[in-house]
Amino acid sequence: MNVLFAGGGTGGHLYPALAIARALVAANPEVKPFFIGAQRGVERTVLPTTEFPHELLDLHPLYRQRPWQNWRTLRSSTGAWRRISELGPGALVATGGYAAGIALAVAARRRVPIVIQEQNSFPGLTVRTFARRAAQIHLGFPEARARLRLGPRTQLFATGNPIEPPPTPGERRLRVDASAAWGFADPARPVVLIFGGSQGSAAINAVVAEWLKEREVTRGGVNVIWATGPSTYDRYAALDAPDVRVRPYIAPMRDAYSASTLAVARAGAMTTAELSAWGLPSVLVPLPTAAADHQTANARAIAADGAAVMIEQRELTPSTLGNTIHSLLTDERRLDGMRSATLRRARPDAAQNIAGHILELLCLK
Fold first, then answer.
1. How much is the pTM?
2. Which domains occur in the chain, in start order?
3. How many CA atoms lie within 13 A of 80 on its CB side?
């Protein structure tokens, strides 16, 4: 049974699709995933390294500000139509972004059952457009339901975002042991994990650098794991110290999550899903230029649950960062409450649950 996957442009759309595809194959080897992606998206480098067959097409977004260029968008539907005709898929699984939009339009025309996985609390334009046509919609944030118009037969599931689940409690390393593996002089100190996504964050990095230079971190008795992003690592590498580990990129992230007491991060859907699964309280600094400001919507939803503190980027300074970290790490009761709140949002088995519902749709379960 062929199942077509479409979603990309960014890792936030592609990696959920890969997690679902792998869960489907693990649950039923009869399922044969095939990926459609954009030649200019992140999938051009990621998909060739995976086990899945794929085709990269000259896909384009809808040019709302430059409508005279939409002929490119219409032309790109030809390749998607051809591939869907050849495969005759039992379903199309779309995870958002312009790479999914064209495939969704073709699938709707050909009456291929549509499954949508929406990562954010504010659904993107593609998802909002095709929600009424979907057989199933799987939400990373239950708050997204209020912004969707469903069809009469659309099934809605608050399954969470599909991520690599953390180890079970019995398999997880003790935090102090995981901290010692980073070579800290005093691994018993609380560890603050700071990162801005795979490419880092220039705004967060600049504030963190000033905070470290003021040595508030040392006075506060805190260890820091800081992922700057590859492009700016050389600028900040000299700040590495016995209580500060500066890295361009962290992979696998579980080595950092297992050592950490608190995270400072952006509010992307997959980042927040991982923080929830690991039960890690966080200070979220949403990216203000994200599409439809969806990261702010994500951060507000999580903060409203008591699982995080949100600081808007324009309000992020070395003093606000240092004061927020200090106030949290010196209030164990509040931290415990945040841990409980973030674990309530956790859906570590999201990929498996989504796969189960898709197999029911395909009559393979």
1. 0.84
2. 2-165+349-361 (3.40.50.2000), 175-345 (3.40.50.2000)
3. 32
